[in-house]
Amino acid sequence: MSVMALACVGAGAHAGSEVQVSTTNIIDYEFDWGRDGVDCPSCNQGAGNSRLAYVDNNKQLWVAAVDPATGNFLPANGMGQLVDSRAAPAPIYLNGPEWVRSALGSQIVFTRYQPGMIPSNQSAGLATATDNGSGGWSVAMLGSSLGKVNPMGSTDPTDAQPTIHYQNTSTSYAFSRVENIPSSELPITVSGQGDASSFRRSVDGMDKIVVSGKAGNGYYQIFLYDPATGVSEQITHEKNNLKGAAMWRAPDYNGDYVMAAVQNGVSIVIYRRTANGDGSFTWNKIIKRQLPSATPYVWSPEFFIHNGNSYVFFQMNTSPNWNDYTKPNLLAMIGILDSNSKIQKLVASGAKSRARTDPEYFITAQGPFIYYNRYSYDGSTLKSEGIWRVDTGLGPAVAPTLNPHPR
Predict the structure, then answer these.
(1) What is the rounded CA–CA span in Å between residue 41 and residue 62?
(2) Phi and psi for 249 in degrees, rounded to 5?
(3) Which DSSP category does 89 fall into?
(4) How far apart are the first and last CA of the chain?
């Protein structure tokens, strides 16, 4: 089925034109906190916060600027400043560099090969890159981290230093620690039922990590893991598989915590946390949106907040295999209120038949844009078409302010 046909099925009102940002296939790039719509040129010792990071196929870690007015990459190929030459490319362990934030400012955490050793599972470890105040970067391996990969972590500027979580080289187990305190490492487990290696994200303001793992009933459920104690709390109890959870304080619900997750691979579900009056909380499902039959599989849900409302965007895939780039797909988003939670396609009806992967958001002066990698397939050859973006149609910020609960 063509994308034109797909776009006519089960879609909402808005569809944006695709704009090419780069002809370079920049794999698993990540934006600093300027993506939330507050450009701060003086932050990070004058390096700013509107920028991206990625690792190329030659193990080079790059940082480039993002123009907050236009959303353009500066330069377009992402090769703005070379930070390191021993970083593990994203395809090796299926994740690239990530930004963390604390009282130390913005940092990049990434998988790095120990200097003086041949790149391998044995030499892979955790590293940080920090602006050094003179226009360069300071790169350091974290102590006692060899054999650990794929770090990500918290972005709360009130923390003295970030809490990071990461995996072993087989990506079968996960761990957490305070960034520069090796002795704080604890395994991430879910109620004694095994590891929670994948589907893990920090919850800022709560000092917890939301994870998916197999519960006692045999279904994947959502857990809140406390990296200070190593204890996990199961917060969903369903006969559905729930994965890919993200959690945040939603202005739509007076600052209550909400959570987006993928149910059984085919639906986006939203939960709201409510107080029970005795100090405990209950998570109630408030929104469920099943994808249309032509593009039935959900992948890569992320959220952003704009003009006092939360939005969740995601891939609508035709294939159940998330990494099958030979099949065309669409991008879509929903709000989290009854009034705005209809699925809205983000790709125009006349768009080419393409695979669109790894969507990320950046809120520009024009409003939120969704960026993604795009691929074409002619039946025998898969070809990268670089980085593209679409406008969400939500418009500029009404009154830009610093988010009291930053990502």
Answers:
(1) 19
(2) -85, 125
(3) P
(4) 38
CB atoms closer than 10 angstroms to residue 121: 13
73-74 and 81-84 strand pairing: unpaired
SS3 content of the chain, % helix, strand, coil (to 5): 5, 50, 45
What pTM does this model have?
A: 0.94
pLDDT for 3 beyond 60: no
pLDDT, tens digit, for every residue of 223-240? 999 999 999 999 999 999
Cα gap 35→346, rounded to integer Å: 18
Contact 356, 373 (CB under 8 A): yes
Count of other CB atoms within 10 angstroms of residue 316: 28
Of residues 124, 35, 42, the one with CA closest to residue 365:
35
Which strand (E) or helix (H) includes residue 84?
strand 81-84
Question: Look-up: residue for tokens 């701060």?
Answer: 40
d(CA 302, CA 211): 15
- Quote the Cα angle for 298-100-198, to 5°: 35
Taking only the tens place, the pLDDT of each residue in 304-314 is 999 999 999 99
- What's the Cα-to-Cα distance from 7 to each of 124, 141, 147, 153, 348, rounded to whole Å? 43, 46, 44, 36, 7
DSSP 313-332: EEEEESSSSTT-TTS-EEEE
